[in-house]
Design a protein that fits this description.
The longest helix has 22 residues, at 139-160. This protein starts with a helix and ends with a helix. It has helices at residues 3-12, 34-48, 66-81, 98-112, 139-160; strands at residues 16-21, 28-32, 56-61, 86-91, 117-119, 124-126, 129-136. It contains 5 helices and 7 strands; from the N terminus they run αββαβαβαβββα. By secondary structure, it is an alpha+beta fold. Strands 3, 4, 5, 6 and 7 form a 5-stranded mixed sheet that branches. The chain folds into 2 domains: 3-48, Ubiquitin-like (UB roll) (Roll); 56-137, Translation initiation factor 3 (IF-3), C-terminal domain (Translation Initiation Factor IF3). Helices cover 48% and strands 23% of the residues.
Length: 161
Amino acid sequence: MDKFEAIRIAQEQELDLIEVAPNAKPPVAKIYSWSKFKYQQEKKKKDSKARPVEQKGMWFKTFIGEGDFNHKIDRIKEFLAKKHPIKITIKGRNRVSREMLKELLDKVILSLGDSIMEVTDMPKQEGRNLMLIVRPNKIKKINEKNDENQIQDTQSDEQTL
């Protein structure tokens, strides 16, 4: 459509002629309300921004039953699968040694497995409690992508045979 005719039609409809793709040949434009267009652009920009990830917390007492321990480990695995960082707190008592707290924390870390999480810092002592923050493993994503690429490569090799 001719540029001048498009401008005339836009003025008749009391709208604006907005150039959408100036680098295209021929350039692409549409008849639209400028205020609506700007609002939609700002809305897309806000939606594309990364939202902060909520940190979850899980605490263990030094004398915890095996069933409760396994349930809490399963919950932590669920949170890690949803990409939430987790603050693990081992609650101590007056007569519990620091070594006992570390043993329980080591048991938690071993139960989670190193393939699904990464430990961010060294454990911190806060009063009688021992605290540690774990995050989802970013390396796993890379490995999954590599596995997908290998699967696609083998499928394409099979098709060529």
